[in-house]
């Protein structure tokens, strides 16, 4: 009881910011806990913090060397006491797992406090390393416990016989508490990706890669429907290619990774690890295109690229990422422009129809356009923290690269002409956008159109009683849905309780859950729960398992979840875009975390000034313009169109 009470108190304090008081009560309770649960808890003491690893007989001890550092724990412990009043709380049904969670949570506070003390000069790097080592040991032991089957008895929770395991916590920081930490927690706990051994790289795990595969499938079909063919170009590009287009090399120079040695010898010319492929594509196009009969040339490649980013974030900005890049060549400027606009609208279609992610489609400013492009088009999405995410771009390259690489053709009159070009691409950044657009405090909420698992089926039975009949009913449900093309999975793992499974699959964002217990089997029914509606509001009891009826119910629910996620995201975005008519109003809107929309006819230097002073950039000049007249928010002069300023990833 004391273990659970202290854990809940600390969590509640961190989330609610309760006032600090009753320090003595927690000190006494901590001393009592250390004696009573020596191998299960982390306890707070005024002069040191001891982590007694419940899976080992030895103790990791980390002294906090200064009064300032010790005061951090005094404050946390005092605030915890303010929440519980020092009273014991009834223990959860699985003391070992709860103690493990308590130990990990408390040691996490130790690490944070020691790091803060180090920043203040009151602790050393060695102090931090000791605390982190203790935390890692505790996490490893906690994961071992979670992997083992629970030993407690299940108790019925619903009239239909479904059961829960009380006291389980999802290992994700609430989104409303700390958005950045929540995002990283979701990626880790949902097994989407992990950090690679080289700084700034990531490993995409199977669940995350399955989302990317769904993105690829849809886009690849649309690309081919619009006349494009897949090809592949080398990853290593001669450095001289990059330097041929002046603005291109200027824009990409800080991000280039160079290979200078190969086979133990210094290379005659350094090779650039592909940051994008306009240069090498043009080198090949110049050999393949001879006359107007060779045009248009419409190609796409699925590849990886490398950009030496200084500040990285999984899926959003990493040294290496996966993407597709389209490259086309045309006889006229009008054809190249039409291609660039067509492809940004394909991206809009994907974002809204498949990812349920509302986007603003528009044109980038000169300052924000792609290096080497005449014009860049973009889809901009609002994330859950109201920052903008550039989710896809399409570029009208004009004849810039054609002139640099002598990519020419003979027109119908026999006159030599430079081709007009476009390029366009989206990347695994889309996965980050989906996470940040739809996720909630519990974890992921995946749009059914892209979810690797659309339906999870959880059988519920009391030990061996009715086990066979429930298992058979669950297997029939899976068979029926799979035959209907639904991506369905059966979770019949006996090592975990139904309640644990509910939490686990909710965290992983599965759109629909089906529960089936003994009473459901007897009634020829099941329970359907929707991820977009928490609690009993999202549950429907007595759903018929007759094949046609079940398929109609499940597919209808999936369609509705898809539509609901889009509408929720659109409502959130629209209520956080404000119209501004002056620079002061823009600054106030950005300060409040909003997107600012207003007329713009100012110079590039004025645009850069806004970025320097507010951190916001012009995201785009939307295709969908409000009726005029418009006035420039910076100069007060008439403006032809409005733009949107926002902070972004």
Main attributes of the structure:
649 residues; alpha+beta; 11-stranded mixed β-sheet; 19 helices; 30 strands; globular
Folded structure, characterized:
The protein has 649 residues and is α+β, with helices and mostly antiparallel strands. 41% of the residues lie in helices and 23% in strands. The chain has an eleven-stranded mixed beta sheet with strand order 8-12-13-19-16-15-14-27-30-26-25, with helices on both faces. Strands 21-20-22-23-24 form a five-stranded mixed beta sheet, sandwiched between helices. Strands 1-2-3 form a three-stranded antiparallel beta sheet. The longest helix is centred in the last third of the chain and has 28 residues, at 547-574.
Strand fraction equals 15-25%
Rounded to an integer, what's the Rg over CA atoms?
29 Å
Strands, count = 30
Which regions contain 5 or more consecutive residues with pLDDT less than 50?
A: 15-93, 147-170
Q: What fraction, in percent, of the residue positions are helical?
A: 40-55%
What distance separates the N and C termini?
44 Å
Q: Number of helix segments?
A: 19
Shape: globular
What is the makeup of the main sheet?
11 strands, mixed
Mean pLDDT: 84
Strand order of the largest sheet: 8-12-13-19-16-15-14-27-30-26-25
| Helix-strand makeup class | alpha+beta
């Amino acid at each position: 009881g004391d273990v659970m009470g202290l854990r809940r108190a600390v969590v509640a304090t961190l989330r609610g910011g309760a006032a600090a008081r009753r320090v003595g009560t927690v000190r006494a309770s901590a001393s009592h806990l250390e004696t009573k649960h020596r191998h299960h808890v982390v306890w707070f003491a005024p002069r040191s913090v001891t982590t007694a690893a419940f899976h080992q007989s030895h103790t990791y001890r980390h002294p906090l060397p200064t009064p300032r550092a010790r005061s951090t724990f005094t404050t946390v412990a005092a605030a915890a006491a303010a929440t519980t009043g020092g009273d014991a709380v009834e223990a959860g049904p699985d003391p070992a797992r709860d103690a493990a969670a308590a130990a990990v949570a408390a040691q996490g506070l130790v690490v944070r406090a020691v790091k803060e003390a180090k920043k203040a000069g009151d602790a050393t790097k060695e102090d931090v390393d000791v605390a982190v080592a203790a935390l890692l040991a505790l996490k490893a032991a906690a994961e071992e416990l979670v992997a083992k089957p629970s030993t407690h008895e299940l108790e019925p929770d619903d009239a239909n016989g479904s059961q829960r395991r009380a006291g389980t916590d999802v290992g994700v920081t609430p989104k409303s508490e700390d958005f950045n930490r929540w995002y990283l927690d979701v990626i880790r706990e949902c097994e989407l990706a992990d950090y690679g051994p080289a700084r700034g790289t990531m490993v995409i795990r199977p669940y995350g890669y399955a989302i990317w595969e769904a993105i690829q499938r849809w886009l690849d079909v649309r690309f081919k429907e619009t006349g494009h063919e897949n090809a592949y170009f080398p990853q290593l590009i001669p450095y001289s290619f990059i330097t041929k287009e002046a603005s291109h090399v200027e824009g990409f120079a800080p991000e280039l990774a160079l290979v200078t040695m190969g086979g133990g010898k210094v290379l005659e010319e350094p090779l650039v690890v592909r940051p994008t492929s306009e240069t090498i594509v043009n080198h090949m196009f110049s050999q393949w295109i001879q006359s107007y009969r060779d045009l248009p040339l419409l190609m796409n490649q699925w590849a990886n690229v490398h950009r030496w980013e200084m500040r990285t974030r999984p899926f959003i900005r990493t040294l290496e990422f996966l993407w597709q890049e389209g490259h086309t060549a045309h006889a006229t400027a009008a054809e190249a422009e039409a291609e660039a606009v067509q492809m940004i609208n394909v991206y809009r279609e994907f974002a809204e129809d498949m990812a349920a992610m509302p986007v603003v489609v528009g044109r980038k400013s000169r300052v924000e356009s792609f290096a080497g492009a005449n014009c860049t088009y973009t889809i901009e999405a609002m994330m859950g923290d109201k920052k903008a995410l550039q989710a896809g771009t399409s570029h009208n390259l004009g004849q810039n690269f054609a002139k640099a690489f002598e990519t020419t053709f003979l027109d119908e009159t026999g006159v030599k002409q430079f081709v007009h070009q476009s390029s366009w691409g989206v990347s695994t950044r889309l996965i980050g956008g989906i996470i940040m657009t739809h996720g909630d405090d519990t974890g992921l909420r995946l749009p059914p159109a892209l979810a690797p698992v659309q339906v999870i089926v959880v059988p519920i039975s009391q030990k061996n009683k009715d086990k066979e009949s429930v298992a058979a009913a669950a297997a029939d449900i899976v068979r029926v849905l799979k035959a209907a093309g639904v991506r369905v999975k059966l979770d019949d793992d006996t090592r975990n309780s139904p309640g644990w499974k509910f939490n686990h699959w909710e965290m992983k964002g599965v759109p629909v859950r089906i529960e089936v217990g003994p009473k459901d089997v007897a009634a020829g029914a099941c329970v359907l729960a929707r991820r977009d509606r928490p609690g009993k509001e999202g549950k429907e009891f007595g759903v018929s398992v007759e094949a046609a009826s079940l398929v109609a119910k499940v597919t209808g629910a999936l369609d509705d979840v898809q539509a609901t996620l889009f509408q929720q995201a659109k409502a959130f975005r629209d209520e956080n875009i404000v119209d501004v008519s002056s620079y002061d109003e823009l600054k106030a809107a950005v300060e409040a975390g909003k997107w600012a929309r207003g007329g713009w006819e100012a110079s590039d230097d004025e645009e850069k000034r806004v970025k320097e002073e507010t951190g916001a950039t012009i995201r785009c000049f939307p295709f969908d313009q409000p009726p005029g007249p418009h006035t420039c928010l910076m100069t007060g002069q008439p403006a032809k169109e409005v733009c949107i300023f926002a902070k972004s990833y």
